[in-house]
Amino acid sequence: MYSSAFIFKAGLYDEEFHRLDQSIADIARAIPGYLRKESWENADSGLIQNIYYWESEEALLQLISHPAHLEAKSKQTRWLDGYRVVIAKVVRQYGDDRLVA
Q1: Which InterPro entries match (predicted)?
Q2: Average pLDDT of 12-36?
Q3: Is the pLDDT of residue 3 over 90?
Q4: Which phi and psi angles does 49 have, rounded to 5°?
Q5: Does the N-terminal or the C-terminal CB of the chain have fewer CB atoms within 10 Å?
Q6: Is 37 in a helix, a strand, or coil?
Q7: Are 30 and 43 contacting, i.e. CB atoms less than 8 angstroms apart?
Q8: How far is the C-alpha of 82 from the C-alpha of 11, rounded, in Å?
Q9: Which phi-psi region, left, alpha or beta, contains residue 69 (left: φ > 0; alpha: ψ -120 to 50)?
Q10: Which of the pair, 20 or 97, is modelled with greater confidence?
């Protein structure tokens, strides 16, 4: 399993941002190998984190190379006050099975 964490500080959003953001979420869910998305916000720092989980690196790369994702990346300075992406191979996950994915 792989994860891709998109960590960013929100700037000023507009209609185009919301359209692209929703489009990218829909595209991700439609890719075979997509597992789930989790989102977190740190109120102290103002950072937001969207984490996508994938069965394979190939599935993740489909999103990264999609035209909508490339468009959003090229326009990020209009909407964000900085970002970072962390891609990781998940070695294991475990818990008490009370959290639903």
Answers
A1: Dimeric_a/b-barrel (IPR011008)
A2: 93
A3: yes
A4: -135, 125
A5: C
A6: strand
A7: no
A8: 9
A9: alpha
A10: 20
34: DSSP letter: E
18 Cβ contact partners less than 8 Å away, ≥ 6 residues apart: none
Q: Which residue has 């937001």 as its token pair?
A: 48
Residues in the chain: 101
With contact defined as beta carbons under 8 Å apart, do 84 and 8 qualify? Answer: yes
Bridge partner residues of 40 (DSSP): 49
* pLDDT tens, residue by residue, 78-90: 999 999 999 999 9
Question: Cβ(79)–Cβ(11) under 8 Å?
Answer: yes
* Among the listed residues 76, 92, 89, the one whose alpha carbon sits nearest the alpha carbon of residue 9: 76
Q: What is the mean pLDDT of the chain?
A: 92
Q: What does the pLDDT look like over 55-82, one tens digit per residue?
A: 999 999 999 999 999 998 999 899 999 9
